[in-house]
Amino acid sequence: MLIFECPYCGVKAEETELHAGGEAHLTRHGAGASDDDLKSYLFMRKNPKGVHFERWQHANGCGKWFHAARCTMTLEVFGTYSAQTFEPPAELVKKIKKKRPDWEGWT
Amino acid sequence: MRRYSAFAVAREALRYNKGWGRAWRAPQPKKHYDVVIVGAGGHGLATAYYLGKNFGITNVAILEKGWLGGGNTGRNTTIIRSNYLQDPSAAIYEKARGLYETMSQDLNMNVMFSPRGVMMLAQTQHEIRGFQRTAQANAFQGVKTEFISAQRVKQLVPIMNVDGPRYPVLGALWQERAGTARHDAVAWAYARACSDMGMDIIQKCEVTAVNQSGGQVTGVETTRGAISCKKLAILVAGNSGDLARMAGFRLPMESVALQALVSEPIKPCLDVVVMANTVHGYISQSDKGEFVIGGGTDMYNNYTQRGSFHHIEETVRALVETFPMISRMKMMRQWGGIVDVTGDRSPIISKTPLGNCFINGGWGTGGFKSIPGSGWGMAELVAKGEHGPLTAEFGLDRFNEGRFIDESVAAGVAH
User: Fold this and answer.
1) Does A36 touch chain B (CB under 8 A)?
2) For position A40, which CATH number holds?
3) What is the pTM of this model?
4) Chain A: residue nearest B253 by CA?
């Protein structure tokens, strides 16, 4: 069972307490964007084998959305962080890189 | 190929079953093939078979990283139906269902297709309207389905509690000619027929890179050496994203885990397939007597072939309410498969940005039932380089144009 620590309320929440929200850090194109940009925002996903940055909502808790880094091959959770950011914290990226030397890094 | 027949059974009975031989060869990979197919599951093998049968292309290799039919072909709940709302989906699933009906004769192997009927329960007013609409659409599409009453449901499935406290059964969408088939036999039958046509099925051969030059595919690197090819077809379900990355393009899909479980075997008591979309569960009884049960997918990306326990609990809880008699049954095995889910919950059968490289994937939770239709259409696309009418709507370009085949609404969970 997946366990994430909510970065807002500090609760260690297991997955029935949470709602998965898919890939994080998407560029959210709006009206007037090109077809390709809209497609990329709405449908195209990295879907990596390995390190994945994603959004979760503490649905049955504080209700807030946060970000998490997780491995899709082992289900290991590397860490969670605030959703008020465009990229993962450098510390977390460094920690993942240490654990997964083959990982191509945050892009 | 030695034909399977009643006579062959009698002949082998007289000589201690020593004359059966291998069903398919296990060759060394050659350096070059006209067509290389990645993935020896149902879809890959069916594509190979119809390439040979319909288009005479037999210089084909089918590469499989594990063992034949060991991915989602060996992990599904074997349901076959075609009661879809949208025209393109109804057409390809109905083509598949039709081919399943004659598959045992066509491939000379018993795939145990059992047209026992599939029932999708309506448990809310919304579902009644939805299924009546689907039945109407199916009538126009030439797919025989009907909306039946709760009394008829009870007649067909006496063990069902149609007056459940939470979600009483209000009716059902009933497709009489839908049913189940033996999933392994489907893969084995196609493999045997492909091998017989001279195609090479190469197991334990993982593709590690896709070679290209000037925007055209030239071959693949594998764990058993480089293989060059004129055309490449990718049919790898949950691993589509990985293969696409090797080929240098992205896909509008994500891989998630879908789980199933089987009970201990009991005496026959359920001779149709029952799907309950509102409460997330579907159930049928196998020929061995086990209840085969499936539920919903997890919502997060996953490549581990195992899913969340709370989904099993939800599924079983829902089914216990509908079938009170299973409340004391033991569940024997549980497993997960990785399905690739697209934005509109419909498959992708398409050319790709890489020349002469074709992809078939995104079947999500509905792959097994579509195997023959998918292979039929994919073979045409690979052979001619252009879509036939069966697959024309399933191209990747639909995501640019907003031309979706929106089945996520039509089929709900039990896709």
Assistant:
1) yes
2) 3.30.2270.10
3) 0.94
4) A45
